[in-house]
Design goal:
Blueprint (H helix, E strand, L loop, with lengths): L15 H4 L4 H10 L7 H7 L4 E10 L5 E12 L5 E8 L4 H18 L5 E7 L7 H15 L8 E5 L5 H14 L22 H18 L13 E5 L3 H12 L3 E7 L2 E4 L6 H11 L9 E3 L1 H5 L5 E4 L18 E3 L8 H9 L4 E2 L1 H4 L2 H15 L5 H37 L17 H20 L4
Parallel strand pairs: 3-4, 3-5, 6-7, 6-10, 10-11, 11-12
Antiparallel strand pairs: 1-2, 2-4, 7-8, 8-9
Helix pairs in contact: 2-15, 4-15, 5-6, 7-8, 7-13, 7-14, 13-14, 14-15
The structure holds nicotinamide-adenine-dinucleotide (NAD).
């Protein structure tokens, strides 16, 4: 086994937000708007702001009898296409700003993948690892009761995200149902256990969608030097719900998973990691680090490995201006939300490394959440094959759409350059001389759809 660490990158800053302080969503939005010169300014202003930000603080009695105050948020960013939709995360770094950014991402995601939801997100600032099950349940239930009618089956519908899961969703459903008895409340939250209205395939949906999207992008020739997932070398940051499923699916399709990681570090095996053994090891030891026949690496090392497909599936801001020059892959698949800072995104774009953007690559979760919501309303339960077939159609269509749009945008640049001659005499077109990435194409589709629907609905009064 070779030592994978090409340099001692463990020294990189642990707070990438400090390295690249630009607000990613606003930055990406501005970049896409360069390609949409006809979009109404009022609409742009509307799309740049959240509709509603709810902040709640509440006390919880801890297991030792002490009282602790928790801070929670729920942001409804936009509801033009339908009720708000978005996960709830439990993490020490949750802030109102982070939740708002993620709610904006959900808005673009739902518009791009074409499901009738607006964008929302929620979170509680806490360290779930230091909390007992009992404390987590109390925090969740009290948060839901504090939110009151800010969530609801036809207003704003939560789902799982970082460090929340189907058990959390069951508590949310139960609390809301107790507060609103006498009606079908199942569609108030998605990602529930199958026994209480959850959809087949929801837990794996984000990873499954990510796989379908990557497979399609490669099949369409979107990744230079890579014609199949089979035999590709894949590094995955994060081994949770999304990262774990992604690892299994890529492995089953013939990929060699050379590295995986969790919050405590990563592991590497040049010949491929035994994923079943890794999952069992993590179950026992709480981490994959230390799995026999692997080398221990840092999370920074993992990102800089030479590989064909790099899949950040953990936190935001992981690929940033300090490590971007050492990223050594043919494709980055954003399984996590916002894992690449805008500064790093520009460099990847200039280097010609395609990025399958989060608003498409991890849209499988919200897509199957939509399927769950439909099943709950209709009191139906679809088979797994049916769910996955519908999901695949959505993901494949999404990739085809953004690739088509990307080609259109890229050729528009050529035209602009030819017609403009000296770009400096056309300052407004000057930023367009950099070719757009897939993210810009995806955002352009989403923003146009939102603008079109807003205009069709009209502004009242
Ligand atoms: P999860 O809690 O199941 O797993 C998170 C993983 O990240 C764990 O393996 C954890 O150990 C690892 N991790 C935590 N801190 C880390 C660090 N500092 N360095 C490296 N790894 C670290 O969460 P998830 O549901 O898998 O979500 C992962 C990402 O995917 C998040 O960005 C989330 O917003 C996004 N996402 C999730 C869903 C979903 O359906 N769960 C949908 C869309 C997007």
């Amino acid at each position: 086994m070779e030592n994978p660490a090409t340099n001692p990158s463990g020294s990189a800053s642990s707070d990438p937000a400090q390295l690249d302080p630009q607000a990613p969503v606003e930055n990406h939005l501005q970049q896409a708007l360069l390609y949409l010169p006809d979009l109404d300014h009022g609409l742009i202003a509307m799309l740049s702001l959240p509709k509603r930000v709810v902040s709640v603080s509440f006390p919880v009695e801890m297991d030792d009898g002490s009282l602790q105050i928790f801070q929670g948020y729920r942001v409804l960013y936009n509801r033009m296409l339908g009720p708000g939709k978005g996960g709830i995360r439990f993490h020490p770094q949750v802030t109102s700003e982070e939740v708002t950014e993620l709610a904006a991402l959900m808005t673009w995601k739902c518009a791009l993948i074409d499901i009738p939801f607006g964008g929302a997100k929620g979170g509680i600032t806490c360290n779930p690892k230091s909390l007992s099950d009992n404390e987590l349940e109390h925090i969740t239930r009290r948060y839901v009761s504090e939110l009151g009618d800010n969530i609801g089956p036809h207003t704003d519908i939560p789902a799982p995200d970082l460090y929340t899961n189907e058990r959390t969703m069951a508590w949310i459903y139960d609390t809301y149902d107790l507060m609103h008895g006498g009606r079908n409340n199942l569609p108030v939250v998605t990602g529930k256990p199958v026994d209480i209205g959850g959809s087949q395939g929801r837990t794996a949906a984000t990873g499954q969608g990510c796989f379908y999207a990557t497979e399609r992008l490669i099949a369409k020739g979107g990744v230079s030097g890579l014609d199949s997932i089979n035999n590709s070398r894949v590094a995955i940051q994060g081994f949770g719900n999304v990262g774990g499923v992604v690892a299994d699916l890529f492995h089953d399709a013939g990929a060699i998973i050379v590295a995986i990681s969790d919050s405590q570090g990563g592991i590497y095996n040049d010949q491929g990691i035994d994923l079943k053994a890794a999952a069992e090891f993590k179950q026992i030891h709480g981490t994959v680090v230390g799995l026999p026949e692997t080398l221990s690496i840092t999370n920074h090392d993992l990102l800089e490995l030479e590989c064909d497909i790099l899949i950040p599936a953990a936190l935001s801001g992981q690929i940033h201006s300090e490590n971007i020059d050492r990223i050594n892959t043919k494709l980055v698949v954003e399984a996590a939300n916002g894992p690449i800072t805008p500064a790093a995104d520009r460099v990847l774009n200039q280097r010609g490394i395609p990025v399958l953007p989060d608003i498409l690559s991890n849209a499988g979760g919200v897509t199957v959440s939509y399927f769950e919501w439909v099943q709950n309303i209709e009191n139906e339960s679809w088979e797994l094959d049916e769910v996955n077939a519908k999901l695949k159609r959505k993901m494949v269509h999404g990739v085809d759409l953004i690739m088509g749009r990307w080609q259109q945008l890229a050729s528009a640049i050529t035209t602009v350059k030819t017609e403009a001659g000296d770009a400096t005499t056309q300052p407004i077109q000057e930023p367009l001389t950099t070719p757009p990435g897939l993210r810009t194409a995806a955002l352009a589709i989403a923003l146009e759809r939102l603008a079109r629907v807003t205009q069709e609905r009209g502004i009242w009064p």
